Model the fold of this input.
Amino acid sequence: MGSQRIINEEDKLSLLQRMEAGENISELAREAGISRQRLYDWRDRLRLTGSLKARRRGRPGKASVVSSEPLQQSGEMALPPEEKALAKTRRRISELEQKVGQQQLDLDFFQEALRRIRDDHRQDTAPGGTESSRSSKK
Done:
């Protein structure tokens, strides 16, 4: 696919500020040599995490916790309190959606297990089934 262009954080912030100021996103992306989606991804990452630091490639570790405080020493622009609250709320919603999803998987699993047990029980008690019979020896 070709080499990826590496853009430093200052340039990313500059592009995002121009994007927020209303400049044409397609033209900004073309100028920077990136996709429009990359600009949106940066914008969303900045809004959610307060940072544009590059993520490690691959699957994130279990203990990866996103800081709600922007990193001032890296030259990042500070988020207003309402943006911080919004980011925190979005993270909480994401956590709850994951929990609901896991609960739904558990519920589906147990409903299917119960259905199979009931089906097996019905087959065992049906006429001609494999139900135990009395011993002929007494």
